[in-house]
């Protein structure tokens, strides 16, 4: 039988719903605050147990709080995912058809790229090729800004990648719709968009996972085929 939901659990869920995603430190602070406000037993190392109680009650609603990792720095994040809708259609209530088409095309560029990023120039060039309704470049720039604000995309130096929230929510959609190119990280086994790939066997790893895995090794070798890992290890000096 599922453990009882308390007001602390409900408050945590409400805040997460309003934010869409929280990083690990924000989630830990929120866990503590919810327990203190509602005078519920609090243990600093029991966040995942606390969340699993919420998940047991969300299950009949086809929803779940999922834990994922930032591809930039490896920090954990928590996002509320709708399991009933695994496609981009879950975004349909918030965006117009041509905005969704621009998002799909942007996603194509990012996932099919070598480094998990798409330059803004390439995305903006797609704006007047949309089938639903062509977009002016100024409009497209504004739409991209909204996707960043809503945490579907991240932007760095004029290049776009998928936000952690998008990766957590869309993982199954991406794995089934991009079967030939989408890969899971060999270390943490979650979807890897920004990754390094073994030249010998094609094994992929997130950059934070690469950094962690090879930290103690004098000669980096692929965890799958044991060949020399020829990519530059992030965070190491040559």
Automatic annotation (TrEMBL):
InterPro entries listed in its UniProt record: Nse1, Nse1_RING_C4HC3-type, WH-like_DNA-bd_sf, Znf_RING, Znf_RING/FYVE/PHD
GO MF annotation, one: ubiquitin protein ligase activity
Ranges for domain RING-type: 185-226
Keyword Thylakoid found: no
Subcellular locations according to the entry: Chromosome, Telomere; Nucleus
Keywords: Chromosome, DNA damage, DNA recombination, DNA repair, Metal-binding, Nucleus, Telomere, Transferase, Ubl conjugation pathway, Zinc, Zinc-finger
Main location: nucleus
Catalytic class of the enzyme: transferase
This enzyme's EC code(s): 2.3.2.27
Superkingdom as given in the UniProt entry: Eukaryota
PROSITE patterns: ZF_RING_2 (PS50089)
Pfam families in the cross-refs: SMC_Nse1, zf-RING-like
GO biological process, one term: double-strand break repair via homologous recombination
Cellular component aspect of the GO annotation: chromosome, telomeric region; nucleus; Smc5-Smc6 complex
Subunit-structure text: Component of the Smc5-Smc6 complex.
Functional summary from the UniProt entry: RING-type zinc finger-containing E3 ubiquitin ligase that assembles with melanoma antigen protein (MAGE) to catalyze the direct transfer of ubiquitin from E2 ubiquitin-conjugating enzyme to a specific substrate. Involved in maintenance of genome integrity, DNA damage response and DNA repair.
Family: Belongs to the NSE1 family.
Stated name of the protein: Non-structural maintenance of chromosomes element 1 homolog
Organism field: Calypte anna
Highest classification ranks of the organism: Eukaryota, Metazoa, Chordata, Craniata, Vertebrata
